[in-house]
Design a protein that fits this description.
Layout lengths: L1 E5 L4 E9 L2 E7 L8 E2 L3 E6 L1 E2 L2 E2 L4 H12 L3 E8 L4 H12 L13 E4 L24 H8 L2 E6 L6 H10 L3 E4 L6 H9 L4 E2 L16 H7 L5 E3 L11 H7 L5 E3 L9
Parallel strand pairs: 1-4, 5-8, 8-9, 9-10, 10-11, 11-12, 13-14
Antiparallel strand pairs: 1-2, 2-3, 6-7
Amino acid sequence: MLGRLVLPDRVIPGRLRVEGGRIAEIAHDERGADGPLIAPGFVDLHVHGWGGHAAMDGPTALDGMARGLVDRGVTTFLPTAVSAPLDALATFARDVRGWSPPDDGADAPGFNLEGPFLAPGRKGAHAAEHLRVPADVGADALEPLLEGLRLATIAPELPGALELIARLVGRGVVVSLGHSGATLEEARAGYDAGARSTTHLFNAMTGVAHRDPGLAVAALTDDRAAVELIADGHHVHPALWPLIVRAKPPSGLLLVSDAIALAG
């Protein structure tokens, strides 16, 4: 296979040889200079749907998502739920846990919950009637959601949020701060409680106002925190991208689609 090989530190014209489903050779070859980009498979941590299929619509929809995403180079994804009643989220979790990806589709090692613990004033497209306050939801009600849960978004300023962050982190879940009206101090408290990511930086959160910095500033200045970016040029103006890459190493910048079923 000839093309432009995307390596960890550079892109080179080259040749890739696969044997038995594994890479057997990577070599420089000028014949690949005008060929396609050849890269490791993409991982989309935050995707609600693709190609007419929504992540919360059951195993058949997950099959459709998996096949559609792999056509775009995504080999691994986290099906992502929107805010919904807890019983609907439990059904979603059960569906993903019991689902086996098709042979011709992307893999899913778990799922992502974007909600329902979001700030009403920063809810974005989430339905207000499904938002919950962490302090009002007992541990037993969340237990059906924990197996397979890899990533969860929480607004850190909500009552009980810091306790919930610590509890989820203790169960091996990566907590992401987002959909939040947090002050700088409230956001920093969320990272101190164990949150390690930030949901679609700048979107649906307090920002970089020079007299009133919020979650975006806390995320960019905390070396423990990764940040998601929807890099479509619409959700975040490209003029801001250099600020992000100067503040975050490559391992701390997570490009996500946040796509819905209409995408693709």
